[in-house]
Write a structure and sequence with these properties.
The structure holds two protein chains of two kinds.
Chain A lengths: L1 H40 L22 H7 L5 H11 L7 H4 L12 E3 L10 H11 L4 E2 L7 E3 L6 E2 L10 H6 L10 E5 L1 E2 L17 E4 L13 E2 L28 E8 L7 H6 L9 E6 L6 H4 L4 H10 L2 H6 L1 E7 L8 H7 L3 E5 L18 E2 L8 H7 L2 H19 L2 H17 L6 H5 L22 H4 L7 E7 L9 H10 L4 E8 L18 E5 L19 E6 L6 H13 L5 E2 L2 E7 L4 E5 L8 E2 L3 E5 L1 H9 L2 H10 L3 H13 L4 E3 L5 H8 L9 H18 L9 E5 L20
Helix pairs in contact in A: 5-14, 20-23, 21-23
Chain B lengths: L1 H13 L5 H32 L1 H4 L11 E3 L16 H4 L15 E3 L4 E3 L13 H12 L12 E3 L12 H9 L11 E4 L20 E4 L13 E2 L6 H4 L12 E5 L6 H14 L3 E3 L15 E4 L2 E4 L7 E7 L8 H7 L3 E5 L18 E2 L8 H6 L3 H19 L2 H16 L7 H5 L2 H6 L17 E7 L3 H11 L5 E8 L18 H5 L5 H18 L9 E5 L20
Parallel strand pairs in B: 1-3, 2-4, 5-6, 6-7, 8-9, 8-12, 12-13, 13-14, 15-16
Antiparallel strand pairs in B: 10-11
Helix pairs in contact in B: 5-12, 9-11, 11-12
Classes of the chains: A alpha/beta, B alpha/beta.
Family (chain A): Belongs to the glycosyltransferase 47 family.
Keywords (chain A): Disulfide bond, Endoplasmic reticulum, Glycoprotein, Glycosyltransferase, Manganese, Membrane, Metal-binding, Signal-anchor, Transferase, Transmembrane, Transmembrane helix
Membrane topology (chain A): Single-pass type II membrane protein
């Protein structure tokens, strides 16, 4: 027994010894290697940061800030005043060079100086001014204005240009409201001239803000200036072409990987990068072409490569390359920005920027990394491998984002101008301004008004992105125009049917009838609250006012003579929950282009497609009430009010302009149409023969304001899953819909 | 250690049964064996442990061992920072090179103790605890390289976090003496408390050539956008106090002001607000009756009532963060940690990490001038938004404020994103808290596009063995006008697909047609669904009650006028 134990102990000891040797043996080579390294060069290679065992002092002694604050004698107010006094001209910021108090009383209003006699302005500048004048920010009263825009054309400040306005300095100084440029916004596309193309405008802009193309980060005053894109004379004033991307192809690669076609400057500023492009050109999938043939005396400066380059240049068609390339190179020209930028963006060709120090257009709000590749001129030779390394998922996303940004902010002069103004307005709004998400995701900042709510979940656009859902109930808004005379009136039946819906939170009756409000007891008793509101001025547009009483995300908009069953309402609402940004409803209509009359036509015929769902029985997000009231110009709204017609068409235009998608029609019981068109007891506006003609006129008027036809056709109707299927009716949830 | 461990585990069972003599004998024997073992171990490790003290005491090194460097009075001083510096002008991008991981390499200078000619150190604190933590974190990260020749970014070990403890001129000289200084190119300095009396500049006053500055109190006039990085002022309480995350929602107080060093003008303004709005506001100050000391930093008082700080922050929906002598305030960090929405009143202040963080979703910024309107402004914010901001605030603290490591690595990631912008982190990655990342749906096809009909569609038919039904499908589908291509995936390893258009009979077809009737088939599919849902971590499928039909589907309407007359007629 004892011997056994002894052996056991010895054995374990032995085992341990062997183990120790092994451990040592493993460590030995490592140790000797490091020893070798060290002796090699005498200088100790640096190791990772050591772990110090000493107790170290904190960087901030607990009493430091307190002591400092108490020794501080200057008042914060004084300090602010000092700042505003010191930081002027090149160091201007909103805090030091902008008078916020001007925007307090009337909000963000923009004044445009009247055109002076004898002054000529370019077409582009005229477009800018009329975009402002047509916007909801415009005021003709300088006393109400928060921002001032000159009527002197400052777009082209290249002295050699025919558009150059002389004596601008004196002209500006003589303006009675100039006030050293305070709260003024100056638009500029070109500045400086050959050979150095400085960014100087040739006159003292004082404390004015610049909305300037090709501005460099050195000259750009953050959150004060606005960088705008360079756009051509032909850039449309409103509407604008859509992006070229019609459908996504997967994998997203196109015939060319990277293309460029443009001038090469043999000498002077901006020539380096374009002169070096030929190094990267491979005549296969990377096609970078330059020509020396521009200007009068190009032959004089021409270098050895010019002839070869020029021949290659003529071999390719620019449009063809633009449409068939995954990436488009946008190297700096004489100035930092170039037309290639917007061209690439529209063509869904992901721009590869090679323009060091260019403050990209609307950089204050646009996250360009999501739509472009920001290259470095110093690393030109790496560009091909860089773009090749970009994963196809990322390409797909970059490409879609180019299209979103193009259509949201760049496709017309009006959008560029409005974006500029909205950016400045956001600064004035301060905490109530848009978040980056609103600017960089569909439908973009021009359609997402921050005054509506600062909470993203209050908008119909961000539910999926934020993992949220709309509130699962709706508010019904019934538009009442005829007096309450009998208890069998359709409005009362409708009220009862809607109130029975499990998703109904409340019913608002909008009393737009000239007769006084009926007594409370005349309304049927319902399980949900019924709120009666007297319409403001009893006009049509009041049905889309953003009433505070609407607390749900969904609004069920109803005409008083609409016939709907509870089941239909329930079903429509469950559909809407899947499409909260669209109009979901029953009566569908369509538009078409009448090529004989060269105008848009409106039809209520039963057709195989539709582009509108009328708001007599439709569910949509309450945000559209706000947008209708605050986004649309008063000219359109007053047209609707005067005609007492077309409000539903206008709402469809608006929602489709925002979503770029058609509304959604859901199944209805078939008697709906007859009810609506004929048998109604009131002197229905639908019976009026002018009614239809007015609607045609409205369509065309609206389309011209939007700059394009926003309506989109759909051939789809959403039915309950077992609709008219040959299964027992008892298995169907929405069986009332197919019962006649 | 090994032997004794082994023995003691057996010991209790053996020893009681032994006689004392034997016990002594065994204990002695073991002591000998143990000693022998120790000796062997010592012998094994002795030779190299002598020279590699640095290696072995790596964990127990003292800052006092760092080499002493004497700065001559005439030693060169760098130029003041150049306000026009940008990445493309002052940063040498060639050092970073092209690498497939798109990651910059960061080098840390070894610690040195700089003293002037008479031996006085350049800093009163030397290496601070926080800066040491920061450098350790960088050194442990993916960014770190010990190879100075491969580095893209250099981080000096000279601690400039707090300008108050620095001798400006000597610190600048020390920077210029760094072996790779080269006009400060590609050097990154971390500073949290810039400026000094009387006017407290908003950026570090130490001349630093072209070095990048990660600064904690920039104003719009000193911040070089796209070059400097705005960082938070670290709050030491972050490490000391644990505040468990609280569910967003309404809290006891609406607004809380807990900073102790508020200028009297602003305190007067706050008192007036308190008078107007009463209980909704809690206005705390230093406790006058408590003894001074570090512990008093953890108490706040209101009319003799004592509150624990920072715990009290969790009792309020909004917390005021007012500028002091400096724009950056450590209180911001405490407030975020408590999930209280910061109300920031510091005109021209560049918020921490504003280059990537969307502060509009986590804070309310109010101009100092509008302090008196604060209550009205905050009241106008919808409840649900306040809750989202509370959640967002806490998430910002956890991800970007909670430790020196978080602050340091976020700074490096921001610089990394500038150098490799095509591989940069997205807005969603920076700003969405994990709960949103899980529940959000970001479709890869996010552009609202209605594709034209012209390109048509590709039919993909998966087949195993049922030739007859395959041919039936092919025949039917090829009648469709918009069919562009038909792809048959032959999924049977034992047989080659039938050739050409030749139709052939398959005897087993009918037998296999009964597949979907098989009960086990349904069971298997249910199992699949459960398995997939567990892998996804959530059930991604959504239930809807609608179905898409053609507009005139089953309507009482002439069939020949319908676009899709045959649907549902089977």
């Amino acid at each position: 027994m004892q011997a056994k134990k002894r052996y056991l102990i010895l054995l374990s000891a032995g085992a341990c010894l062997v183990l120790l040797f092994c451990l040592g043996g493993v460590q030995l080579p490592a140790a000797s290697r490091s020893r070798h390294d060290r002796s090699g060069n005498g200088y100790r290679p640096d190791q990772p940061w050591p772990h110090f065992s000493d107790p170290l002092q904190p960087f901030l002694p607990w009493d430091q800030t307190d002591t400092e604050e108490y020794n501080l004698h200057i008042s914060p107010r004084q300090k602010r005043d000092v700042n505003t006094g010191v930081y002027k001209s090149k160091r201007c910021r909103m805090d030091s060079c902008f008078d916020f108090s001007l925007c307090k009383k009337n909000g963000f209003k923009v004044y445009v100086y009247p055109l002076q006699k004898g002054e000529k302005i370019s077409e582009s500048y005229q477009n800018i001014l009329s975009s402002i004048e047509g916007s909801r920010f415009y005021t003709s009263d300088p006393g109400q204005a928060c921002l001032f825009v000159l009527s002197l054309d400052t777009l082209d400040r290249d002295q050699l240009s025919p558009q150059y306005v002389h004596n601008l300095k004196t002209k500006v100084q003589n303006l009675p409201l100039w006030n050293d440029g305070r709260n003024h916004l100056i638009f500029n596309l070109y500045s400086g001239t050959w050979p150095d193309y400085t960014e100087d405008l040739g006159f003292d802009i004082g404390q004015a803000m610049l909305a300037k193309a090709s501005i460099s980060t050195e000259n750009f005053r953050p959150n004060f200036d606005v960088s705008i894109p360079l756009f051509s004379k032909e850039h449309p004033r409103t509407g604008g072409e859509r992006g070229y991307l019609k459908y996504n192809s997967i994998p997203p690669f196109r015939k060319y990987m990277l293309v460029f076609k443009g001038k090469r400057y043999l000498t002077g500023i901006g020539s380096d990068t374009r002169n070096a492009l030929y190094h990267v050109h491979n005549a296969e999938d990377v096609v970078l072409l330059t020509t020396c043939k521009h200007g009068k005396d190009w032959q004089k400066h021409k270098d050895a490569r010019c002839d070869k380059d020029n021949t290659e240049y003529d071999k390719y068609d620019y449009r063809e390359m633009l449409h068939n390339s995954t990436f488009c190179l946008v190297p700096r020209g004489r100035r930092l920005g170039s037309f290639r930028f917007l061209e690439a963006l529209q063509a869904a060709c992901v721009p590869v920027m090679l323009s060091n120090g260019w403050e990209l257009p609307f950089s204050e709000i646009i996250d360009w990394n999501t739509a472009a590749v920001i290259g470095d001129e110093r690393l030109l030779l790496q560009i091909p491998s860089t773009v090749r390394s970009i994963h196809q998922d990322k390409i797909l996303s970059l490409r879609q984002q180019t299209q979103f940004l193009w259509e949201a902010y760049f496709s017309s002069v009006e959008k560029i101008v409005l974006t500029t103004l909205e950016i400045i307005q956001d600064r004035v709004l301060g905490h109530g301004s848009r978040s980056s998400l609103m600017w960089n995701s569909h439908p973009g900042g021009l359609f997402a008004l921050p005054q509506y709510s600062g909470y993203l979940g209050d908008f119909p656009f961000y539910y999926a992105t934020l993992g949220m859902k709309p509130y699962p109930k709706f508010t019904a808004v019934i538009h009442a125009v005829s007096p309450l005379v009998s208890q069998s009136q359709p409005i009362l039946k409708l009220l009862v049917a809607v109130a029975k819906s499990q998703y109904c939170a409340q019913i608002i009756v909008l009393w737009n009838c000239d007769k006084p409000l009926p007594a409370k007891h005349r309304w049927p008793a319902t399980s949900v609250p019924v709120i009666v509101i007297e319409g403001e001025n009893k006009v049509m547009s009041s049905r889309f006012l953003p009433y505070d009483t609407i607390v749900t995300d969904a609004v069920l908009s109803l005409d008083e003579d609409t016939v709907l069953s509870t089941t239909e309402v329930d079903f429509a609402f469950t559909v809407w929950q899947s499409f909260p940004e669209r109009i979901v409803g029953y009566p569908a209509r369509s538009h078409f282009w009448d090529s004989n009359k060269e105008r848009w036509g409106y039809t209520s015929k039963w057709t195989n497609d539709y582009s509108m769902v009328l708001t007599g029985a439709a569910i949509y997000h309450r945000y559209y009430h706000y947008l209708y009231t605050n986004f649309l110009p008063s000219s359109l709204k007053s047209m609707v009010d005067q005609l007492a017609n077309c409000e539903d068409i206008l709402m469809n235009f608006l929602v489709s302009a925002v979503t770029k998608l058609p509304p959604i029609k859901v199944t209805q019981k078939k008697q709906y149409k007859e009810t609506m068109m004929g048998q109604s007891s009131r002197a229905s506006r639908w019976a009026d023969p002018d009614h239809f003609a007015q609607r045609q006129t409205c369509m065309n008027k609206f389309a011209s304001w939007f700059g394009a036809m926003p309506l989109v056709h759909s051939q789809m109707r959403l039915d309950p899953v077992l609709f008219k299927d040959q299964v027992s009716i008892l298995r169907k949830k929405y069986r009332d819909i197919e019962r006649l | 250690m090994c032997a004794s461990g082994k023995y003691s585990s057996r010991g209790p069972a053996l020893i009681p049964r032994m006689k004392t003599r034997h016990r002594i004998y065994y204990i002695t024997l073991f002591s000998v064996v143990l000693l022998g073992l120790i000796a062997t171990g010592m012998f094994q490790f002795w030779p190299h442990s002598i020279e590699s003290t640095a290696d072995w005491t790596l964990d127990k090194r003292s800052v006092h061992d760092a080499p002493l460097v004497r700065l001559p009075v005439s030693s060169p001083i760098p130029e003041r920072g150049d306000l026009s510096c940008r990445m493309h002008t002052c940063f040498d991008v060639y050092r970073c090179g092209y690498n497939p991981k798109n990651r910059i390499k960061v080098y840390i200078y070894p610690l040195q103790r700089f003293v002037d000619e008479v031996g006085v150190p350049i800093s009163s604190t030397g290496l601070s605890r926080e800066y040491n933590d920061l450098l350790s974190a960088i050194s442990d990260s993916d960014f770190y390289t010990d190879d100075v020749t491969r580095a893209c970014l250099f981080v000096p070990s000279i601690d400039v976090l707090n300008q108050n403890s620095l001798r400006i001129r000597e610190t600048a000289q020390a920077l210029a003496m760094l072996p790779r200084w080269d006009k400060g190119m590609n050097h990154l300095l971390f500073n949290m408390l810039p400026g000094g009396p009387p006017d407290y500049n908003t950026a570090l006053d130490v001349p630093r050539d072209r070095a990048l500055l990660a600064g904690g109190g920039f104003s719009t006039w000193t911040y070089r956008q796209g070059y400097d990085v705005s960082i938070p002022v670290y709050s030491p309480l972050s490490a000391d106090v644990e505040l468990p995350e609280r569910q967003p929602g309404p809290r006891r107080y609406f607004i809380l002001s807990s900073q102790t060093a508020i200028h009297r003008e602003y305190r007067a303004e706050l008192e007036r607000l308190k008078e107007e709005n009463g209980e909704a506001l809690l206005l705390l100050d230093k406790c006058s009756n408590l003894s001074q000391g570090a512990a008093s930093a953890r108490k706040r008082c209101y009319k003799g009532q004592v509150y624990d700080y920072p715990q009290i922050l969790q009792e309020s929906s909004f917390c005021v963060v007012l500028r002091g002598a400096r724009l950056g305030q450590a209180a911001l960090s405490d407030v975020l940690q408590a999930g209280c929405v910061p109300v920031i009143l510091a005109d021209s202040y560049i918020l921490p990490f504003s280059e990537v963080l969307d502060w509009k979703r986590a804070s309310v910024v109010i101009p100092e001038e509008k302090l008196s309107e604060m209550y009205t402004i905050l009241k106008s914010i919808p409840h649900r938004q306040v809750e989202e901001m509370q959640r967002q605030a806490r998430w910002f603290w956890e991800a970007y404020f909670s430790s020196m490591k978080a602050i340091g690595l976020t700074t490096l990631q921001i610089i990394n994103d500038r150098i490799y912008p095509y591989a940069s982190r997205t807005y969603e990655q920076w700003n969405n808290p994990p709960v949103v990342k899980w529940s959000s749906v970001n479709s890869p096809l996010f552009l609202p596009l209605i594709p034209p009909r012209a390109p048509g569609f590709t039919a993909v038919v998966l087949t195993y063995d049922r030739i007859e039904s395959l041919f039936r499908v092919i025949t039917e589908i090829s009648k469709v006008p918009s069919l562009a291509k038909l792809l048959v995936v032959w999924n049977n390893q034992n047989k080659s697909p039938p050739e050409g258009e030749k139709k052939f009979k398959c005897p087993e077809c009918t037998a296999i047609d009964g597949l979907s009737l098989d009960q086990t088939h349904m069971v298997e599919r249910s199992e699949c669904i459960n398995k997939f849902a567990s892998v996804f971590g959530t059930m991604p499928l959504k239930v809807v009650e609608h179905r898409a039909d053609p507009v005139l589907y089953k309507d009482d309407f002439p069939e020949k006028l319908k676009s899709f007359p045959n649907i549902g007629s089977l």
